[in-house]
């Protein structure tokens, strides 16, 4: 019996996605059975986390299980490269950390978002994939710079709660300005999931902020199969027009991935790429979504984030319900 | 039904205080019922903590509940100012952190002691109050520079265990020297609680180390209602005379709040403000109290801290029992 | 009734060691009874930890108990010297931290490995011993620079699983090269435990890397009583010859303990002190052991660490089973 991981939206079939969403919806609002009593989830955070950390710990605890949390400041440096001669700073190889943790816990979550090298290197999710390869227990992607599948499925759950049916609905994924270079994880994951669900997706960003071409092709192919569509626009006005869901988030420039100062320079002229009431008024009374954390009054204004169409906290809450569904599937 | 928080001794009526103390006393020494099974307390520590962290986690676990702990090193920087344009370092606004956490946990504790600006700014407890305002779950003050209510109620419980009745008893709150500038939280909270309990309070400190005038007025008003009294002395010898409880702690100079070097200079001539056996011998066989951590042989000598009248570890232990009472009131 | 601690292999009798190993073996593979329900283990980590942290937390949770974890970054600095005048950086004395924690938790684990001073100072395990002296609850050694008893007992358990009987078996404890100066804890502990179990121990290291003479004498004395033997060799070739267990680990130079640069210089000529297939072929088909973390391709090659005779992950797993036995003995 092969081990199941939860690493990428690219690994999900449509029926697996539907099953997860149904399982999460059924669990929401009901007292949790103690279905994971005696089970332990180890979580490794190589970057800060609020939602992912707390929503997973809440999910495990409500199911009767336990989380063991390690952050980079609890650990020494780890070596991800195979066959490395470890005479540098890394005190332990990921191989050994993964195999050791597999003797202690029932599943392992890994957050590894950092920019380490070029986009060509970082898009390979070296650290996450190395844990998945060497762990004998299921590994869960807690966000990389390439994917954030738990977020995207919680986002899909949120859209299903607020819209009667998703197929054919117009979703705009909108790039927003941000003082820091950000990962492409949430964007890639919701792009693929929305395409799988048959939505009419408009990916809107300034020139130079193209998403990964393989992900875009994958989303187009998924949309082809589901009756959806994916188009790309580079114009802010066109982006909002007719949108029934406006999903805002910043992401980094893959061309200048290892040169954040250059990205920052480019972004100086892009300050109008933010969501405000004017932009919202051009939509078809769109739901406003954002995966958080959000730079208020930079990426989106207080007025729209706190406005009547904002569902940003529902997205956050649904992390718990979706992750309970994922954990049950992996661990029972 | 409005949300209940636990933020300040100023919000407590005398009968609420008595109820808490009675509930804590009844719980002490008995096996805990699992009254908080399935409940989660989130704790945010923006400064180090030993007693508060461990006593709250112990309380929750003994009641069948769970703690999720986040420290500043687990998180990015948070923005507390309303309407801020977040183009600086803060990655998330307290508004969003508070509302998100409210979807995950049943109550939220916040420790935010740091000196950030002037006393006029810091006395407003901006971070704590922002969490309380924006959380839909109860918020508990785990210590600010202005108040430490959990500590003061545990102190009151300790005094009640060691003295037959508190009304009319002579309590001296004594400023002690310390190499670092300290918060006024424990001092303010015990000052108000002791006044509410009808004690004869002597607040003793060198000139320049006045406590917040609003707190002092509040304590005097509470003493008026309870039959107690509050006097201020600036003389170390007068401070100890006749005291039945000597409560020692250092606190910072509010006038030079944003200039710690000036405070340090002033304190160089105040090294005799410490508790030793001589000072204790001038009291009426006083109990020695200190909320810990204590600078041994600076604030108080080993001989008195480890002496027969010291109840410093009872104060620490009673944190657990008092906090169980607070948690039960907030969560059941 | 005196408090029991678990601090050193030197405190164990042979029959106590056998009891622990039997208890751990019986527990392995069986669902854990909830024998520590309601019990809490506090763990203080003054250095990073993966195996110790996660294996203890796993053990407690599987027994129905709870761990409260504090790392140095959660705390202020602590003062270990008795009678210190605390006008420096340390905010609290170990005396007070130990007595406070004793009011909150049922047992206390301490990891304190750092080089602080000379070997003569650090071999006294000042921080651990201070916690043990001042805690009223049992204290467990989670590794010092002098001992790592939990590791050594897990190692003994692993050898017992793979070899029909340990008495008379040839065990080589082999020094390996490493870019950093390392503690002597695991080496000292397995040396004493193996001697107690009647093994024929060869301690193999370059000149200058002698272990503590008191530990060596203690091991020789234990070997005398058990029918075992301890010899020291300074030749890599002689070390492997005939070994049935090859236990590799680096350790620091006690003579240059407070001069890591000098140790680094000495080690530049010792790069052949590593385990590879050639060295393994000179053994009597030895089991390969290492307590982890291991510097791959510096201390030992990938080929031998991942080879058929490597039991390094069994050693890691057995930490859980041995620690359950220790916790049950201390807490029930």
Secondary structure layout plus pairing:
3 copies of one chain form a homotrimer.
Chain A: H1 14-27, E1 40-45, H2 51-62, E2 66-71, E3 78-79, E4 92-93, H3 94-104, E5 107-112, H4 119-122, H5 126-134, E6 139-144, H6 149-162, E7 170-175, H7 185-196, E8 200-204, H8 213-226, E9 229-233, H9 236-240, E10 245-249, H10 260-267, H11 277-281, E11 287-289, H12 302-305, H13 312-331
Helix pairs in contact in A: 1-6, 1-13, 2-13, 3-5, 6-7, 6-13, 7-8
Walk me through what this model shows:
Three copies of one chain form a homotrimer. Chain A has 332 residues and is of the alpha/beta class. Chain A has two domains: 9-148 and 318-331, Rossmann fold (3-Layer(aba) Sandwich); 152-315, Aspartate/ornithine carbamoyltransferase (Rossmann fold). Chain A has 13 helices and eleven strands. The first copy, chain A, has helices at 14-27, 51-62, 94-104, 119-122, 126-134, 149-162, 185-196, 213-226, 236-240, 260-267, 277-281, 302-305, 312-331; strands at 40-45, 66-71, 78-79, 92-93, 107-112, 139-144, 170-175, 200-204, 229-233, 245-249, 287-289. Chain A has a five-stranded parallel sheet. A four-stranded parallel sheet of chain A has the order 2-1-5-6, sandwiched between helices. A two-stranded parallel ribbon of chain A has the order 3-4. In chain A, helix 2 links the parallel strand 1 and strand 2 (66-71). The first copy, chain A, is globular and about 55 Å long. The two termini of chain A are 14 Å apart. The interface between A and B is medium-sized, with 31 and 29 residues.
